[in-house]
From TrEMBL:
Matches recorded under InterPro entries: Acyl_CoA_acyltransferase, GNAT_dom
Gene3D superfamilies membership: 3.40.630.30
Residue ranges crossing the lipid bilayer per the database entry: none
Organism: Stylosanthes scabra
The protein, known as: N-acetyltransferase domain-containing protein
Superkingdom, natural source: Eukaryota
Domain N-acetyltransferase positions: 8-159
Amino acid sequence: MAMDLSRITVRPFKLSDLEDMWLWASDDRVTYNTRLDTCVTKEQAVALIDECITHEFKKSICLDDRSIGIIWVIPWAGDAKFKADLGYAIGFNYWGKGIATKAVKIVLSQAFHVLPYLKRLQAFTLVENKASQRVLQKVGFQREGVLRNFFYAKGNFIDPLVYSFLPTNEIPNLD
Ligand SMILES: CC(C)(COP(=O)(O)OP(=O)(O)OC[C@H]1O[C@@H](n2cnc3c(N)ncnc32)[C@H](O)[C@@H]1OP(=O)(O)O)[C@@H](O)C(=O)NCCC(=O)NCCS
C-alpha cells in the first residue's frame, strides 16, 4: 500500500532524535553517496545533531515526527552565498516510497523564503545514483551536465552530474 505522504515533515533536529538518527546515520548504505561521514559512535551522532541544530538549514526528515533522514541546504560562503548545495539521505528501510521527493518539495517551498538571497539551488549526484537523479527530475530540477574531476574523495576523482533549481522555476505542489 502506498504511504500517506502527509505523515512526512521536515523540521529542525532535536537532541531527542538521537536514537532515531542513529538508525540511519550509522548505515553506510545511507551515507555512501553523500557528504555525511557514517557515524561509528553515539558521540559522533550527538555531534552531528549539534551541528544540524546550529546550522541554518540542516533538517530532519520525519515520519510521524520521528527522524528517518536528513536534508540540507548549504549556502556557499561570502559573495557566493547566492548559491547553495542541496543534499538528502533517507533511512534504508524507507527507500522507494516517495519520501525524498516529498522532502525536497517541502524544502523548495521554504528555502527561497528562509534564505531570500538564494538565486540558485544546486545538487550533485553520482552518475550511477539513478534514484537521486529521478527525485531531482520529479521536482523540477534541471540537469546541467557532468562536471569532470570535480570532487576528490577516498582517493578517487569523481565526475558528478549537476542539477539546478532557480527561484524563477515553478515550485512543485506539495501533494
Ligand atoms: C536517493 C534517495 C534519497 C532516494 O530516496 P527515496 O525516498 O527512495 O526517493 P523517492 O522514493 O522519492 O524517489 C525515487 C525514484 O527513483 C526511482 N529509482 C530508484 N532506483 C532507481 C534506479 N536504479 N533506476 C532508475 N530509477 C530508480 C524510483 O522508482 C522513484 O521514481 P518514481 O517515483 O518515478 O518511481 C535514497 O535512496 C537515499 O537516501 N540514498 C542514499 C543517500 C543518497 O544517495 N542521497 C542523494 C545524494 S545526491
